[in-house]
Amino acid sequence: MTEDLATRVLATARVRGWHIATAESCTGGMVGAALTEIAGSSDVFDRGYVTYSNAAKTEMIGVPPQLIARHGAVSEEVARAMAEGARAASGVELAIAITGVAGPGASEAKPEGLVWFAAATAAGTDAERHDFGPLGRARVRFESTRAALALALRALLAPV
Q1: What is the chain's pLDDT, residue by residue, as a tens digit (160 residues)?
Q2: Do 32 and 48 form a contact (C-beta atoms < 8 A)?
Q3: CA–CA gap between residue 89 and residue 112 (Å, rounded)
Q4: 74: alpha, beta or left, given left = phi > 0 and alpha = psi -120 to 50?
Q5: What angle is formed at CA 66 by the lines to CA 65 and CA 70, rounded to 5 degrees?
Q6: Is-contact 98 23, C-beta < 8 A?
Q7: What is the DSSP string of the chain?
Q8: What pTM does this model have?
Q9: Rounded distance between C-alpha atoms, residue 79 and residue 82, angstroms
Q10: Beta strand pairing status for 45-50 and 94-100?
Q11: Are strands 124-131 and 114-121 parallel, antiparallel or unpaired?
């Protein structure tokens, strides 16, 4: 399923003439890996930022530290800032961001399986929240990769 989604994302980006960047936290580069698993992806996939720490989010893609302090790394605001920052830093037409709690180490406010996603294009930034639940770290990361690819596909299919 993930390979099919990745293939569709790449094909749709090719048709549009778009390039893609990722900004990943809890997935640690899995979305970029899913895209680059497909032969020929280099004409569409530009780069991936693995911004696992808060410092990396700030240093690599310009997420304001005050935003992280105010809302936490796992938030809609930070997901949006990650996507917008990755798009600005890379110059691509589409950037996808993921930040969440793969587990363990969840809190009541931010439980295991809570993941925020964002897609930034010239038309704006869309964000969505997924509550996967306590599926275990590997499963949350897998489901997050799939959800990010689905969001990327929706962004690519949206009117400009």
Answers
A1: 689 999 999 999 999 999 999 999 999 999 999 999 999 999 999 999 999 999 999 999 999 999 999 999 999 999 999 999 999 999 999 999 999 999 887 677 889 999 999 999 999 999 999 999 999 999 999 999 999 999 999 999 998 7
A2: yes
A3: 30
A4: beta
A5: 120
A6: yes
A7: -HHHHHHHHHHHHHHHT--EEEEESTTTTHHHHHHHTSTTGGGTEEEEEE--SHHHHHHHH---HHHHHHH-SSSHHHHHHHHHHHHHHH--SEEEEEEE--SSS--SSS-TTEEEEEEEETTEEEEEEEE--S--HHHHHHHHHHHHHHHHHHHHHS--
A8: 0.96
A9: 5
A10: unpaired
A11: antiparallel
* C-alpha dist (Å) from residue 120 to 1, 49, 150: 24, 15, 14
The label of the residue with tokens 């990722």 reads 22
How many residues can be counted in the chain? 160
Side chain identity at 21, as an amino acid letter?
A: A
- Side chain identity at 25, as an amino acid letter? S
